[in-house]
Please model this.
Amino acid sequence: MKNYIDFVADASWNTLKGLWVTLKFLFLPSITVQYPTEKIVPYPRFRGMLAYDAELCIACGMCVRACPSRCIALAKAAPPPAPPPAADGQPAAPAVKAGPKIEWYTIDYGRCNFCGLCEESCPTKPKAVWHSLDYEAVFSTREEMVRRWKRGDGPWGTVKRSADAQPSAISDQIHIQDMPVRK
Amino acid sequence: MTNHAPPAGLRSDQMFINFGPQHPSTHGVLRIALTVEGEVVVKGDPDIGYLHRGMEKLFEARTYSQGLMLTDRFDYISAMHNNLGYCLAVERLAGIQAPLRAQYLRVLVAELNRIASHLVFFGTFAVDMGAFTPFLYAFREREMIMDLFEELCGGRLLYTYMRFGGVSADLPAGWAGKCTEFLNFFEPRLKEYDTLLSGNPIFKSRTEGVGVISAERAVSWGLSGPILRASGVNYDVRKNDPYCVYDKLDFKAVVLQNGSCWDRYYCRMLEMGESLKISRQCLAALASAELTPGEIVAKGVPKMFKAAPGQAYAHVEASRGDLGFYAVSDGGMNPFRMHVRGPSFINVAILQEMLGGCKIADVVAILGSLDIVLGEVDR
Model:
C-alpha cells in the first residue's frame, strides 16, 4: 500500500514537472505556420519543381543522361540553313539568327526524384534546367504530369490558349510561386 | 517468462491477431502475426516485404552517381548516413580520397542527421507509450535541423548531398552561425526531455525491465547500433573501425547495461548529447584556417564515373546501427552488384524471439524501442 501511494505521489510530482516545462512555452510566440494563408519561402538551394528555359538550352542531353529515373526527354532542332556563299566583291550575307537549338523538351514530373543531378550536369550558364522554389504542384491526371515544351511555345510554365493568344501562366497545372527564382 | 497456463478448470483459447501493416504503431508497413492467449502473446512473427522496391537490383541498372539517389530511400529518416556509406564504398572501389574539409562536412551532417533521427524516435516512442507532448517538442527541434539541411543542400528529407570524393556544396554564408545557434538551443532541451519522459515513473514502469535482450542474444542475432550498446556491448563503428575523421574527434560510445526498452531509449538520448559534442568540434574545425573553403571535392573525379573491376565494402554507424555497402564492379558504368547491410532489417529479426511470452501492450513498447525504418527493412 505504501509503495502504491509512493508511486502515485512520484508520478504526480513528475507530471507536474512535465507540465511546468510545457507551461514555459505557453506564452512564447507560436512556431507553426498556418499553411494556405501563410507560406514559407524556401532557401535558394531548395530543390522544388523543375523549371526549364528553352532560350538557354543547347540540347546537349546531359540532363537526360544524368537523370536516374529517365524523366527528361528532348529532341535537337535541325541546324539552321547555312548562309549563301558570298558572291565576288560582295560582303557575306549576315548569318541567320539561330532560334532555340531544341525542338521539344519533356519533363515527367511523376517520375522526378528531385535529386538535382540534372541541374548539376547542365553545362549552360545560367542553367537551362533548374529546380525552382515552387513546392506546390497539383495534377489531376497522369498525362498532366508530363510537361512538354515545343518550338513556338512561350516560356516554361505558360501555355498558349489559342494560336494568336499571348502565352499566359498555367494556373490549373503547375503554379510556380511568383516567378521561378533563377540561381 | 510469464506463466500463462490458465487456472485449472478454465478453458482457454488462442486467438490470431494481425498487428499491422496499417497499425499506426508499426511506423510503416510491418505486419506482425500475433497468436495471443488472453493478454499474453504466445507467438509473434514479423512479416516484412510490403515496401520492397528491389533497390539492390535497381543499382545494377543505374550508373554509380545515379545510384546515390536510391540510397536516400533506404533509411529515409537518416538519409545522410546512407549517402555516406554508399560514397565510402564507391570511393574505396575507385581509390578516391575525399579532402579533409569534405570529411569534416560529412561528419557534421551525419551527426546532425543522427540527432534528427533520434528525435523522431523520441517523439514516436513517446506517442506509442501514451505521451503526446514530447512528440511536438521533438519535431520542433527536428524542423530546425531540416531547415539547416534545406539551406545547405536543398533537400529536407532526401538529401543527395554527398558526391564521390566529397560533398556537393560548401556551407552557405552564415550557416555555421545558425548551426551553432541551434546547438546552443538544443543542449538544454535534452534536460527538458529527461523531465518530460526519461524520469517519468509511468513511462518507466512501461519500459523498464520490458523486452530485455542479454548481451549474448544481442550479439548472436547480429544486432547493432543503440540496441546493441544498450545491452552492454561496446561496439560502435565510429570507434571500432573509424571512417572519415572520427578518429580525430573526442566522443565516447554510449554503453548501457540492462538491455531493456528503457535502456534502448536512454542510450539514444545520451547519443544525442555525444552527437552534439561531435558537431561542435566539426564546426570549430571547419572554421579554422587549415581547411580551405571551397575545397570540397577530390580533384579528377570524372562526371561519368567508371570503377576498375573489383569489390569493396564500407560500413558506417548509421542512426540505427551498422550500415554496410558492398559494391562489386566489372569495370562498367554500373555496379555489377550492390549489397546493402541494413541495420533495421537485421534488428527486426529478433522480434520473433522477444515477443513470445510478453503482454500485448508490451509489443508496442518492444517494437518502438527497436526503432526500425521499414524503408530499410524491405529496401
